[in-house]
Amino acid sequence: MLPIVLLSVFGIINLFLGFMRSNRALLPFALVVLALVFGVNLLDWNHAGSITGLFDSPYVAQMLTVDNYSVAFSGIVLLTTLVLLPFSRSYVAAGEPNLAEYYSLLLFSLVGAIMMVSYNHLIMLFVGIEILSISMYCLAGSDKRNVRSNEAALKYFLQGAFATGILLFGIALVYGATGTFQLNELAAAIATPANASLQSMLYVGVLMMVIGIGFKVSAAPFHFWTPDVYEGTPTFFTAFMSTVVKTAGFAAFLKLLLVALPGASAVWLPTIVAMAVLTLLLGNVGAAVQTSAKRMLAYSSVSHAGYLLLGLIAGRGQLSGPAAQAIFFYSLAYSVATVAAFGVLKLVSDQRQREDYAGLAGLARTNPLLAFVMTVAMLSLGGIPLTGGFFGKFFIFTAVVAQGYIWLVVFAVLMSMVGIYYYLKPVIAMYMRPAEPGNEAPIVVDGFQSATLVLLAIMTLVLGILPGFLSGLL
Questions:
Q1: Contact 362, 440 (CB under 8 A)
Q2: Exposed site from 226, 320, 324, 417, fewest CB < 10 Å?
Q3: Contact 231, 148 (CB under 8 A)
């Protein structure tokens, strides 16, 4: 797991770069670091253990594992951050004094994300979640002069602390019932319990762990923090929060359920089904009534957690099965489209100082590229054919139908129709409404950001036209 070491070391080095008079070197440095780590991560593909031998020690090897599953999901979070960074150019241009700290926190949070997708020990899961969460608490309140940002950080921290306590208590109960933190040993202990009287303790612990992780991935009914936190957090960090945190959370969730807790499915499966139904309903209905594009994307993030929960329901067998493949593809398609949507929204809000639909009005006339990329992103998030989002939902639904939950897929399709309604709102505003008075000037977009937006749109369309090239990847 050389990426963990590199991210930690370069995160510390980046802090020292903050002492320079100019912050212009920080963004190129962060981009080079992420590109390097992304490449190093890919070197572990198809290797049963890190090729560097860095984590082959018997002490560490039992805590973290390197396999195609961890490499694939680590690649998603690294790639997402890499294509998101160009939209922080406004911080560079404004001479943001804390930019080095921001980039270092992003690098450190990726350490936690990689731990979450690579853990083989419940304590490492907890450590990874905390590294990621603490970084996000700080970034949520990074706009210190903004009351909304302060409110977002406080809400996120307080509710996150409660969720962390519930998760840790659940881990303690599971350990008390099984006597181990190792995932494989947990599965064996649950399959052949040594003391049947401890089963109740085990089941309560499993439910508490599901609740704790459910908070992290914005699953209902533990999603109430999401709209306010996403709205108050600076848009750049909201994009990171809604993609990287969710991808790492669901990768960790699936690994926990498939590897450690298959024998306790009688407890967690009905709970996940109920959470999925609630999440789809509240996320889509909540998004449909919003007037703010940013708040709509917050509720949209909740709804997509519902679709990913369906993947957990379909989870059977190994981490290379159809459910894991579907969650991987969905996470990639969702992350690419979400970064594109938030990227456009950030560029617009930086100049027009608005995050509602009216702020997007007339964008097709002033900035056709921004309008096109936003449209592609909305269509993908809505699951329209020829976009990655369509096949993301198709693979999820197919895996769920194979497990016999046809009624659940019908409900999810109905909720997807609601999603199309609110995803078309920004498109209608951009193409069918004139710009508000004072917003007639084109949005300033530099060449690097334009190239990134074009790349994101191409990736979304390629995932929708050629989805097969990722099939069987895990």
A1: yes
A2: 417
A3: yes
Q: What is the DSSP letter of 182?
A: B
Mention every residue, 6+ apart, whose C-beta is less than 8 A from residue 46. 68
Tell me, rounded to whole angstroms, the distance of Cα 103 from its chain centroid: 18
pLDDT in tens, 418-448: 999 999 999 999 999 888 887 788 888 989 9
d(CA 94, CA 234): 15
* CA separation, residue 205 to residues 176, 213, 215, 266 (Å): 9, 12, 16, 14
Q: Name the nearest CA neighbour of 360 among 443, 264, 417, 419.
A: 443
Q: How far apart are CA 364 and CA 369, in angstroms?
A: 8
Separation between Cα atoms, residue 11 and residue 187, nearest integer Å = 36
Q: Domain span at residue 88?
A: 2-470
Instruction: Supply the pLDDT for residue 75.
Output: 95
- 63: helix, coil or strand? coil
Longest dimension (CA), the chain: 72
**DSSP state for residue 444 in the 8-state scheme:** P
Rounded to 5°, angle at Cα 194 from 191 and 199: 70
Please name the helix (run of DSSP H) or strand (run of DSSP E) that holds residue 437, with its range, or none: none
State the residue for tokens 């064996």: 188
C-beta of residue 199 within 8 angstroms of C-beta of residue 263: no
Strand partners for 182: 121
Q: What is the DSSP letter of 233?
A: S
Q: Which amino acid is at 318?
A: Q
Cβ-contact 194, 176 below 8 angstroms:
no
Spatial CA neighbour of 281 closest among 314, 307, 312: 307
Q: Which residue has the higher pLDDT, 435 or 76?
A: 76
- How far apart CA 201 and CA 267 sit, in angstroms, is 12
Residue among 247, 259, 261, 159 nearest 210 (CA): 261
Q: Are 256 and 125 in contact (CB under 8 A)?
A: yes
Give the Cβ contact number of residue 49 at 10 Å.
15
The tally of domains found in the chain comes to 1
